[in-house]
Amino acid sequence: MKYEKTKVVLNQLVADLSQLAMVVHQTHWYMRGTNFLKLHPLMDDWMDDLNDQLDEISERLIALDGSPYSTLSEMVEHTKITDEPGNWDRTIKERLEILSKDYRYLADLYQQGIEVSDEEKDFSTQDIFIGFKTATEKRLWMIQAELGKAPERDL
User: Which end of the chain has fewer CB atoms < 10 Å from its terminal CB, N or C?
Assistant: First the structure.
């Protein structure tokens, strides 16, 4: 079968993008404190961005004759991004640190996709992976800057 390793990464991204969107949504709902007025609406933009990535990744998987996960139980079973019940005890800084960790994982998963799509010579999918990895690294830089950290050194 064609592009099997690439399809595995694509489906992992389906699960992880879905879960990360929920983590961002939880941050949006449970946020209190300094920079709330700036960060609360920003989380809406981040959720939209993740959902756009999810749609493009899922559609690419379908174009390769794959079947994206499409139920909550599949997302829960396959995601590697952890979750926890919402609570009011976390500071905005702590929530951004969680997002930083999760976006780092996402960037690494996109890198894995770049490598396997190169191996399988699926350069169209590789182009998608490269673009989303670049955007994810930019998001990481912005989160780290908000935390007063360098983009890579303190990840």
Answer: N
Report all structural domains of the chain as residue ranges with CATH numbers, in order of start: 4-146 (1.20.1260.10)
Residue 122's φ and ψ, nearest 5 degrees, are -100, 80
Model-level pTM?
Answer: 0.94
Per-residue model confidence as pLDDT tens for the chain (155 residues) = 799 999 999 999 999 999 999 999 999 999 999 899 999 999 999 999 999 999 999 999 999 999 999 999 999 999 999 999 999 999 999 999 999 999 999 999 999 999 999 999 999 999 999 999 999 999 999 999 999 998 765 44
Phi, psi of 125 (to 5 degrees): -70, -40
